[in-house]
Amino acid sequence: MTKDTENDPRLTPLAASLPSTVPFIGPEAQERAKGTPFKARLGANESVFGPSPSTIRAMRQAAKDVWMYGDPESHDLRMALAVHHVVNPDEIVVGAGIDGLLDSLVRLTVTDGTPVVTSAGAYPTFNYHVTGYGGTIHTVNYTADFEDPDHLIAKAREVGAKLIYLSNPDNPMGTYHTAATIQRMIESLPKGCLLVLDEAYVELAPKGTAPAINTKDSRVIRMRTFSKGYGMAGARIGYAVGHKTLISAFNRVRNHFGMGRISQVGALTALEDQAWLEDVCEQVEESRQRLYEIATENGLEAIPSATNFVAIDCGKDGAFARTVLTALGELGVFVRMPFVAPQDRCVRISCGTKKDMALVAKALPKALAQAQAAVDTQKV
Amino acid sequence: MTKDTENDPRLTPLAASLPSTVPFIGPEAQERAKGTPFKARLGANESVFGPSPSTIRAMRQAAKDVWMYGDPESHDLRMALAVHHVVNPDEIVVGAGIDGLLDSLVRLTVTDGTPVVTSAGAYPTFNYHVTGYGGTIHTVNYTADFEDPDHLIAKAREVGAKLIYLSNPDNPMGTYHTAATIQRMIESLPKGCLLVLDEAYVELAPKGTAPAINTKDSRVIRMRTFSKGYGMAGARIGYAVGHKTLISAFNRVRNHFGMGRISQVGALTALEDQAWLEDVCEQVEESRQRLYEIATENGLEAIPSATNFVAIDCGKDGAFARTVLTALGELGVFVRMPFVAPQDRCVRISCGTKKDMALVAKALPKALAQAQAAVDTQKV
């Protein structure tokens, strides 16, 4: 028994049963372990293009006001989001990123043994919360690197799921379904089942990827964030949009004074600067194209992406891709990879600046060669 | 049944049972309701003296880096806190304010019917979390405006409490116990009972108010914050210090990427600037003295305070104090008051600038006169 799995005797049985593993190790921890900083930070799908200059200015300006708690209702931001999405303010709840909102949502709906459906290899932080509240996770496989709405629905029907989690576009593969496909999925949800539609990357996807938001429809809750397209991962601002009855329930459990003041100001400014978001989309598209090229240059296939990252198929199994990933890290390029086969044949590289892409272009062939050498050594 | 108490059918029985009331209404919501901003913001025990200039500079500087997630381990801040408190880094967990840490702690230890002990009228957000996880709250009364360690211990013994919550110095009364008294309380804890020692205001209390931190002692967990003395309420940074087995359990449930990047940088800088904290303590002391004087000028008694607020006894019952509070609000002075009798005979006024104090000095006699007039009218 390691230190971390020792239990304080006062833990609840559920808390005592939880694993001490965490979904992600941060790049900073990896840098501390290897003793040198990464040259390219392309593993967490952050936006290297940053928030808009006006957003940075607004946050700098707000720093002096940090002695005041942020508005616990995130009123101004919710009002602006309501206008932006043409919904009512009471159909939006703001939280500490989608991670924080998933925590609250799972807490509200999942208890011991509650069945929940997701794709094997989809967002592990959702699973972390489901496990954390005692739920039971049922998975279906990806189909050709796409999350599979039909299989998710069928599994939900089979196990009587209360929640289905789907990200569109998908993380970690970058694939996406059309609005029509998602809407059909919503229409075919079993009675009593809520679709948790994680649209963290939707601002970066082709226009029209998101089905129209209909807050009268209590079968779906939409999760959005300022962490990706808006370039504010470190500010921890996400929001959920849905039926007001479900949305209002968040107020029973959320950390009311949990939203930072600088973050609220920043998000409001970021939302107003849609021109910047469009500019980011163009830069992301350019970087995606470059990542496709880099894959081709190395004789590999890239999965076409609707996000700010590209999964590159390393052409062999998960062990091989993990070796490539490790080698990339040693060469100064922080990336991640899918956790589950066969998607774990890929490494997932975030879009970046031209300089970032040049580093990838230089490091990938070396990393592939190192991984191949490791395979050859094992064969001997 | 109002809108807010309608239930989504997918809520867990516990979530469905939770009240929709929240511990505190923010000053911004009150300003929106009355249509004018407050002239003095003295209701949330924020530090009007702000964070240190170096902290503001560091946060302004960090705004451009907000595209990156904050380090999920808050490594640098934890290291600095470990040095500051002479403990090991794995005996500290950083979270989104004490509110966020109380959420995690209660989640880890409280389930349906778990008995918990606190003082009637103590911090309502702790109770919010206990109720939120299905625990059962048992209360004891204050004794002469002090939380009563002996009564808390006796009640914990009687009900088999898993947690006792105590804030020292106390909020909302501002009174405090000596380190020796708190240490005696720790020594007399029933077996299996954890003391949640909320020391949010301890930096503002007389030196030596906090018992020595002994992380080998698993009977107590200490809660600290950058929201009060350090003047960073809007940055949402608190930390808990305790035995490593309990502290490590937070990693099973906390929102790992929940700590903002700008906030982490700010807190680290604030911690380094202890001279600023000392300066704030002096300004707080000056303001406390002024609040005592204002009480005297109005023929009222102030409760001696070890915090950055003063509870002023309005000399009558809770209804009277509530009328004073409302009148103060209408005169532009945001304050709060204790929720429970007989402490609710007081209004609680945060320390402030000389200008803030001048506003209080001017508004309080008017508010008292209005409240007295209301009483006189009712008598007729």
UniProtKB/TrEMBL annotation, chains A, B:
InterPro entries hit by this protein: Aminotrans_II_pyridoxalP_BS, Aminotransferase_I/II_large, HistidinolP_aminotransfase, PyrdxlP-dep_Trfase, PyrdxlP-dep_Trfase_major, PyrdxlP-dep_Trfase_small
Coiled-coil ranges (or none): none
Reactions that this protein is recorded to catalyse: L-histidinol phosphate + 2-oxoglutarate = 3-(imidazol-4-yl)-2-oxopropyl phosphate + L-glutamate
Pfam families (alphabetical): Aminotran_1_2
Protein's pathway: Amino-acid biosynthesis; L-histidine biosynthesis; L-histidine from 5-phospho-alpha-D-ribose 1-diphosphate: step 7/9
Keywords of this entry: Amino-acid biosynthesis, Aminotransferase, Histidine biosynthesis, Pyridoxal phosphate, Transferase
NCBIfam families per the UniProt record, alphabetical: PRK08153.1
Protein's recorded name: histidinol-phosphate transaminase
Species assigned in the record: Octadecabacter temperatus
Lineage: Bacteria, Pseudomonadati, Pseudomonadota, Alphaproteobacteria, Rhodobacterales
